[in-house]
Amino acid sequence: MRVPCLIALTLLSAAAPLASQPRGRTPYADVAQGRILSFSEIKSRVDKVVGGRMIGMDYDAEYFRYLMRYERGSEIIDVVVDARTGRILNGRERM
What we know:
Layout: H1 2-20, H2 27-32, H3 39-50, E1 53-60, E2 65-72, E3 75-82, E4 88-94
Antiparallel strand pairs: 1-2, 2-3, 3-4
Signal peptide: 1-19
Keywords: Signal
Organism: Glacieibacterium frigidum
C-alpha cells in the first residue's frame, strides 16, 4: 500500500511545476512583449558579478525570474535573478 502512494506522490510532485507555469509563456514571448530583459543581457550582468561558468538555467514565468547555476572552481553557485530588472535577488554557494 505504501509503494503505490509513494509513486503517486512522486508523480504529482513532478507534475506540479509544469501545472504552475502560465500557459504559453516563454522567456521569448515575455522579451518580445517588453515584460523582461533578454537572457543575453541578464547573463552578461550576472557573469560580471558571479564569475565562473554558467552550467544551468531555468525561467520561472510566473514570477519573471531566471534561476541560474554557476560553477566557479569547486563551488556551485545558485543565483535567482529578477528578469524584469536584472537585479540579483539572491545567490547561494554550495560545496
